[in-house]
Amino acid sequence: MFLGIDVGSESLKVVALGETGHDVAAEQEPYTFDTPQPGWTECHPDVWWSACLEALTRLGRRIDLWQVNSIGVTGQMHSAVLLDKSNAPLAKALLWNDQRSADAVLELETRVSRADIQRVTGNRLAAGFTAAKLGWWRKHYPELLAQVAKVVMPKDYVVFRLTGQLGTDVSDASGTGVFDVASRSFARDLIRELGFFPDWFPHARESIEVVGGVLHSAASQTGLRQGTPVLAGAADNAASAVGVGASLPSTAMVSIGTSGVVLVPTRDVRVPTDEELRSREPLHLFCHALPNTWYRMGVTLSAGYSLQWFRRMLSSAVQTGTNKGIEKGTETNPEISFEAVNAWAQHVESAAEGLYFLPYLTGERTPLMNANARGVFFGLAANHDARHMVRAVMEGVGFSLKDSLALIEKTGAMPGTVQLTGGVVNSLVWSQLICDILGLPIGMQSRAGAAYGAAQLCRVAAGLHPTAQTGSDKEGIQRALQSQGASGSHLSAGDGMGTVLQPRMPATDNFQLYYQRYQAIVRTLQGLW
User: Which of 236, 274, 436, 495 is catalytic?
Assistant: First the structure.
């Protein structure tokens, strides 16, 4: 049995898989992060560890955790955890969607040019990246930064609490802004040039390498067997890609949780030309969780969050139904349900009868790279009601994902299929909209997710996954990958594949026109941001 742990933005998930990849059990422990100011998001690392203990304790009441062969841990990227010399957290972690570091990016780019940073790391610095957060701390809390001994990501802190060993993996390290993705190692010279210390950053392992075994103290708290191997793990999107089978450029992954992601694997990590640097600025190039594999990725910061925001906003304002068929709340549960808004969207025509939504509630990465961008409803008319606004939100998120796919395709990648994962798969309406907007067949991966992918990494390391038919060593896995590439196959997400959706005509053609209008609205408003 293999265990996957996902340190998410708003909950910690644990998934147990059998040796053949079948689900055994799962648990989830919710928590909240703090928003002390608009655009700020932070969370104390011990919140994640407490949630891990609670989730594992509940899981241990259902299954025998002594039967777990190994553990893979995944989690949100970029969120900077500062540790002192005793490996205790110095402050709350600034999360991936925290935007306070926008000015710090500009300051860092005065030390090293944007183009030079991108040549080394494969990525333009974003406000959410770890390096930008360190720049913000240096400006506002230099005395705190002087106490830093190590900088890790959320999943790394949980791995440390499990094993007593500090480290990270190449996929999570890729999002720090100071990692050489081509050599799969921290860029020590760049770190110094930016005014930081290379020793802050722990050794970056491949995702399938073992960091250490479960400590006696952690075993007694969780019910796990002492010494159970814990892998270095992977960033959430890399783990999810493993879970859905996205290992070759022919298969893209689209994930919609709080944020939205379009990810396409690649083997192309050559140094780009200056023109390519400029055109690829809004995209990320990160190490995959599989050796000698990378991926290009576009991110929209408020994807599922946009629909969640609209439901909460509407629920707080509307406590009774209307003759338009809007489901009303109750005194005990005033929040309008996801099922209700999903039904509304089903009965509204495409383009929400002239209404468009830009999902930039917390700034935007791809394609804008602008922390100051904000959400917009455009085209509101007297005939529109909440149903049209829900439909516009769903389509707006779909258009923002198309922005990312279009930029990735300009790099030469031409995926033929998409694997869709995240909460969106619970909505056939929204999933079909995304299929029509992207114009590609979509497999709905109801079983997938970052925790599931982390558990699948354990199967890869054990030689039980199709990627590792020749063994768990790096060379064996790479031979398997090369063999798969020659045959045109890809990672299998196991049994239980979801529904496959096909683009519908003329909806796909119509969405091309609506997408062009969406882009025109964005271009018009860019100057205001």
Answer: 236
